[in-house]
Amino acid sequence: MPPAVLAALPAARRPARADWSPDGGRTWIPARVGAAQITPDRTAECRYSGTADLLDVPVGGRDGINTVVTHVRLFQGIQGPRMDTPYWVPAGRYVVDGVSRTRLGAQVALLGLEDVIRTAGFPSARTIGPGIARNIVPELITEALPSAVVAWRAGVDAGADVPRFVVDADRWAALSTGTDTTGVGTGIASALGGEIYADATGAITIGPVPTLADPVVWQIPYGQAVVDTAETQSAEGLVNLWVVSGDGGDGTAVVGPVHVWDDDPNSLTYAGPDPVDDPLAPQRLGLTGVRVRVGRHTSPLITTTAQGDKVGRALLADSLGIQASLSFNALGNPALEPGDVVEVEVEPGRWERHIIDSCPYTLGSVSMSCTTRTTARRLL
């Protein structure tokens, strides 16, 4: 979002608009939109979901809103006092998961485009690869979603080799973070140390797992944007040492094991200087608070040690970051996306970096509610 538009947020008008497509995205028809709720959530199967009232639209049949081929796009406008026209921010591209006829049009339940790929399972067991990720991934996506735009973000190697592997039926698991019947990983995105999702424009995006080292996209001062804060901590899912291996298909490790751990002495989840080759170091050094929590990940798609290290660091970023979370209500910024890094003044003079996990909002509202996470740190 341009700085001038960001600065206009407190006093801006917030119009909304919608388009719908009767043919899966080839043609778009404008529609007036009434009440609409947008739910961006990085932890959900569909990163964007929502509900909306579409006004003066036909319902049912080939030429009306239906749950078979209809696509919907929503947009949030920001129009500051000196802006002649609104700046339009995409608020998701969706398929219709449910529709009810209303007196004024239709009320629709919406799911992101991941739902199209997720429900398009393979009719029979499928052998995938060998090949290059940038060739295999779009093929698997466009088989299910011919209109898809596939985007690769920096930090994920689109030119990586994908070895031959077999999946039973789950297309999305083959692309994302699936496992086979033995628990061995089959997801291409996870084997690249990344994640796959449909972004706010509907582009199927393969990007790196977000970390707190990513650039801050928004600073939220105490008392200005933050209305209320509630901090929680949980040990659920905490792993500070990952053991990553490439599986040869017969149970033998062809790569690894590669070990990746939290090596930051200032972290509450510090695993010690070398928990693999020197597990007694914490006792010898007087580090009585060190506790090792081990997780294992095996995938036949991991073919090099460097790839195993990247996968381990991506897993570590997720398994450490969930430990301290922050929920707050803030001035609505529709440009925020799950995975963005924000800097929040949680109390006067105390700033923290957090990764946005979810940021639901009502289309047209001046506020939004965000749930974030950050790595737990030692109190100084």
Structure description:
This protein is mainly β and 380 residues long. It has seven helices and 23 strands. The chain has helices at 3-7, 114-119, 133-144, 171-175, 188-191, 281-285, 305-321; strands spanning 16-21, 29-40, 48-55, 71-78, 87-102, 105-112, 126-128, 131-132, 150-152, 161-162, 165-167, 194-198, 204-208, 216-220, 228-233, 241-247, 253-261, 294-299, 324-331, 341-347, 350-358, 361-362, 367-374. The strands form six sheets. The protein has a six-stranded antiparallel β-barrel. A hairpin with a 7-residue loop joins strand 2 and strand 3. The chain is flat and about 70 Å long.
Task: Report the sheet with the most strands, covering strand number, pairing sense and barrel closure.
Answer: 6 strands, antiparallel, barrel
Report how far the terminal alpha carbons are from each other: 36 Å
Shape: flat
Q: Which structural class should the secondary elements be placed in?
A: mainly beta
Number of strands: 23
* Rg on CA atoms, Å: 23 Å
Query: How much of the polypeptide forms β-strand, as a percent range?
Result: 35-45%
Mean pLDDT: 88
Helix content, binned percent: 10-25%
The ordered string of helix (H) and strand (E) elements is HEEEEEEHEEHEEEHHEEEEEEHEHEEEEE
Number of helices: 7
Give the low-confidence spans: none
> Can you list the strand order of the major beta sheet?
1-2-3-6-5-4
What's this entry about, in short?
This protein is mainly beta and 380 residues long.
Which keywords apply here?
380 residues, mainly beta, six-stranded antiparallel β-barrel, six-stranded mixed beta sheet
